[in-house]
Design brief:
Elements lengths: L1 H7 L13 E6 L2 E7 L8 H11 L8 E6 L11 H7 L4 E6 L9 H8 L3 E3 L4 H7 L1 H9 L3 E9 L17 H13 L2 E5 H7 L15 E5 L10 H4 L6 E5 L4 H8 L4 E4 L2 E2 L2 E2 L1 H10 L4 E4 L3 H10 L4 E7 L26 E9 L2 E8 L5
Parallel strand pairs: 3-4, 4-5, 6-13, 6-14, 7-8, 7-13, 8-9, 9-10
Antiparallel strand pairs: 1-2, 1-3, 11-12, 14-16, 15-16
């Protein structure tokens, strides 16, 4: 199963909004074939694993199939994987995690058992569920899984008192950021960050599967027509989320290839909860939030953030007025703080990445 998980990760950035899945066919301790879901619309992991068996001159009959996610049992862009499992004569299936998709939801396991196949479930379940945190959230909530990312010094500053922030972290951490830009379907920032930094918000790793959709939260359409995200909209999808309904103003951006999403206003800015519903309906399953302190505060207040990636650099900027990751009014008392659970701590050179889950009310 550990091998299947490793294989599944090879589909990162290529299969959204489908899940990451890996599969390994084994007989008497020997791997006969293996596969993973390689791209959206392509064959699923199980079928690729059976193809691998045939390529290796091996029969899967009587073998055990290890798969990270319950095999699908419905027709989508490809036929049901349960059919392939039965047709290839597999005698035992070991499943990492159940599929919450209502089209599957235990039905795949039931069909395999009805066919006389032994099915074991819950093997390395936590790891398999973590692998597909984005898919599980999206399929259940119909809204994007949002990870808020920021880099700060050890005294909690995201820029110097003069507003300079390049660079807080070193190269290894920045490479990881670009890998995550490749994993997530979209990157979101606010017009304040566009005005201050004129970012490209692209993925700069050599083997990037695709460029993420750029989402700009811009309530009154203040993004400069000459901003890099606008000038390159024909090369990388750029969507501007706004409450401005002025057609002439919108036309400036549309002419350069931007897409305008008109949204309702809430608390003086784009209503982020309704924005998530709209983006979910558009097929956006995940967002890497690289906003400034005010957008971060608004996102947390709206309850749209599922996880936080905090990079900490061993530096001290100081400065009473220097920016911090989360702005807004803030908590009045300590017990009003946003609660996080640390999932993982990883060093990148001299920097640390803390990956945290946001605790929801009542949990």
């Amino acid at each position: 199963m550990q091998r299947a998980i490793s294989l599944a990760r090879r589909g990162e950035g290529k299969v959204n909004p489908n899940p990451l899945v890996g599969a390994v066919v084994v007989r008497e301790g020997t791997i006969l074939g293996e596969g993973w879901h390689e791209e959206f619309g392509g064959l699923h992991a199980e079928r690729n694993a059976f193809t691998s068996c045939r390529r290796n001159g091996k029969s899967a009959e009587g073998a055990t199939l290890y798969v990270t996610l319950e095999p699908c049992c419905h027709f989508g862009k490809t036929p049901p994987c349960t059919d392939a499992v039965i047709e290839n004569g597999i005698s035992r299936v070991v499943v990492g995690s159940a599929d919450p998709n209502p089209l599957v939801a235990g039905e795949g396991i039931r069909l395999l058992r009805e066919a006389g196949i032994s099915v074991e479930t819950g093997v390395l379940q936590d790891q398999c569920e973590e692998l597909n945190a984005v898919f599980f959230h999206y399929i259940k909530e119909k809204t994007p899984y949002v990870t808020m990312k920021y880099a700060m010094t050890m005294d909690g500053k995201t820029a110097t008192f003069a507003g300079h922030s390049k660079w807080i972290t070193e190269s290894p951490a920045r490479v990881r950021v670009h890998e995550d830009r490749n994993r997530y379907m979209a990157i979101m920032t606010g017009v304040g960050s566009v005005l201050a930094d004129d970012p490209m918000l692209n993925c700069r790793i050599p083997d990037a599967a695709r460029q993420p959709i750029r989402l700009i939260c811009d309530t009154q359409l203040r993004t400069p027509a000459g901003a890099r995200v606008v000038r390159t909209a024909a090369e990388q999808p750029t969507w501007i989320l706004t409450c401005c309904t002025e057609r002439e103003k919108q036309a400036v951006y549309r002419k350069q290839g931007c897409r305008i999403l008109e949204l309702e206003q809430g608390a003086g800015h784009v209503d982020l909860r309704k924005a998530m519903k709209r983006l979910g309906a558009e097929g956006i399953d995940s967002i890497y939030l690289e906003g400034g302190s005010e957008l971060n505060a608004s996102a947390l207040a709206a309850g749209i953030v599922q996880s936080v990636h905090c990079y900490i650099a061993p530096k001290l900027f100081g400065g009473a007025g220097a920016k911090t990751p989360v702005g807004g009014r803030g908590a009045e008392f300590p017990d009003q703080a946003e609660r996080l659970t640390i999932r993982k701590v990883t060093p990148y050179g001299n920097d640390l990445l803390l990956e945290c889950a946001v605790k929801k009310a009542g949990r």
